Amino acid sequence: MFKKLRMKLSLLCSAITIGILWSMSAAFLLVSESNQLENNFLSFQADMNSLLTSLEGQSILSHSWLKKMENGKYRIYLLDNDKPLLFNELTFSKEEQALIDSLLSHYRENLSDQTPANSFRPAHCEFSWSEKKAAKSALRTSSHYVSCMTWLNNSVPITAVVYASQLPQKRHFFMQRILFAGLDLAGAVFLFAFSYFFTGRLLKPVLENQMRQNEFVASASHELRTPLSVILASVSACEAAPTEEQARFFAAIRREGKRMQGLISDMLLLASGQSDRLRLNKTQVDLETLLLNQYENFEPLARQKQLLLSIDLPDGDLPLCQCDEEKIAQLLSIFLQNALSYTPAGGSVCLSARQVSKNILLSVTDTGFGISRQEKKLIFERFYRAEKARSQRDHFGLGLCIAADIAKAHHSHITVTDNQPTGSVFTLTLPCTPPF
Questions:
Q1: What's the pLDDT band for 311 if we cut at 50, 70, 90?
Q2: Which domain does 115 fall in, by range?
Q3: Distance from first CA to last CA of the chain, Å, rounded?
Q4: In this predicted model, what pLDDT tens digit does every residue of 391-425 receive, in sequence order?
Q5: How far is Cα 117 from Cα 124, in angstroms, rounded to an integer?
Q6: How far apart are CA 46 and CA 257, in angstroms?
Q7: Other residues' Cβ atoms within 10 Å of the Cβ of residue 195
Q8: How many C-beta atoms lie closer than 10 Å to residue 193's C-beta?
Q9: Positive or negative torsion for Cα 16, 17, 22, 27
Q10: Has this prediction a pTM greater than 0.70?
Q11: Dmax of the chain from CA atoms?
Q12: Nearest-angstrom CA–CA distance, 100 and 161
């Protein structure tokens, strides 16, 4: 499913960006070519002004001089009193002659009346030419730039037709389009590859979240199945057992029912925390009193497990802290429960508090098995339990995950460090409220 979603998102993202890229490239080419056509036509007009001045100053128009003026760019066709010069007829091909006839016909029908020639004023006009349309507005579709000139030489009207092919320019445009098409194609490949990579990174948290959700459901189902199996087995045994033995089965049913109740409560708390609905009732809390209460609650359990539970408070008073007293107590209970469960008999557990700058650090230190570097990254995951604790059934692996959610809701954080020579230190850093 994620592969298909990734491909669809990649195609959508790349299609949008590629469409924008190609549209901008096409617009740039259109504007660039239009500007080049306009500039070339203006340059042609300037050349024709210079050429007309040169033609007026020549008393004799020789073939060699005209070839020099053409300079490989233009073709010049002259008419002396509407009769073509001999060397023009000899050097122009039939196709060129047909073109000249069309240009002269267009000039005489449409433009000659706008450029009258007399002894005082020579005239010329420039236009773009195509078989379909002859006008300046047809620069993009034209095939030639054309100039028609008329002046008097020794009282004889001379007409010149000068034209330049646009074929080199169109070849340049074609090669420019091929270059842009290649660059756009390369850009499309790069954008698709980038989109595929980016959507993979984008979907990675979603995939990991789904995997964690699947693992959560599987782990929760497994944890619920065990007490349910014990309850069903106890019910079956209770039905067949004599009255004096039924109390033992009822006790097992009650014990497993409480385990299920605790597991479901933890799961509901996690669900509320993960959906940002973990409600806090913040008040000014005396943390010393809170720690003493936790010490008194867990001291009998520590004695039962043959562990030494101690408390370490600073000599001076701790400042009040703006927090949810019930949630912080639950977090400390999780720390203490884990410490007492994972510390072997004869070990010790210490509950302490100290102020560092504007923060209060609440710590639980044990002399248990310790936590490896790899496990420190996993212990806050749902249903994770250290290998040494797999045999213990009073833990579901949800406590530290709940503790992390409580800390996050208080805008604080939990750190886990090693205790020397053995054991671990769990520390909650809470921002404190300075005394007034």
A1: very high
A2: 2-172
A3: 58
A4: 444 555 677 888 888 888 888 999 999 998 889 99
A5: 9
A6: 100
A7: 22
A8: 12
A9: positive
A10: no
A11: 146
A12: 7
Tell me the residue type at 386.
A
The two three-digit tokens of residue 206, written as one number: 């979603």
Angle at 410 between CA 405 and CA 412, to 5 degrees: 85
Domain count, the chain: 2
Taking alpha carbons only, the member of 426, 299, 310 closest to residue 365 is 426
| Distance between CA atoms of residues 84 and 96, nearest Å | 13
Answer yes or no: is 385 within a domain. yes
Phi, psi for residue 383 in degrees, rounded to 5: 65, 15
Q: For 322-359, what is each residue's pLDDT tens digit?
A: 898 988 988 998 899 889 988 999 999 999 999 988 89
Return the structure tokens found at 265: 């409560």
Please tell me whether residues 426 and 302 are part of one structural domain.
yes
Residue whose tokens read 């009650």: 254
382 close to 273: Cβ distance less than 8 angstroms:
no
CA 288, CA 354: separation in Å to the nearest integer?
Answer: 10
Q: What angle do CA 185, 204, 267 make, to 5 degrees?
A: 160
Distance separating alpha carbons of residues 25 and 23, to the nearest angstrom: 5
- Beta carbons within 8 Å of 235's beta carbon, 6+ residues apart: 249, 253
DSSP β-ladder status, 348-356 and 308-312? parallel
The verdict on 288 and 164 lying in the same domain is no
Q: 145 has which bridge partners?
A: 128, 164
- 236 falls within a domain: no
| Alpha-carbon gap, residue 92 to 78, rounded angstroms | 11
Q: 400 in a domain, yes or no?
A: yes
How far is it, in rounded angstroms, from Cα 130 to Cα 122? 26
- The residue assigned the tokens 């072997």 is 344
State the Cα–Cα distance between residues 289 and 328, nearest whole angstrom: 12
Domain end: 122, 146, 172, which one? 172
Q: Could you tell me the CATH number of the domain that includes residue 314?
A: 3.30.565.10
Distance from C-alpha of 163 to C-alpha of 76, rounded to nearest angstrom: 7
In a domain? residue 113: yes
Task: Let me know: does 192 contact 3? Beta carbons within 8 Å.
Answer: no
Contact in structure between 131 and 139 (CB atoms under 8 Å): no
DSSP codes, 88-121: HHHHS-HHHHHHHHHHHHHIIIIIGGGS---SS-
Residue ending a domain, among 146, 172, 198, is 172
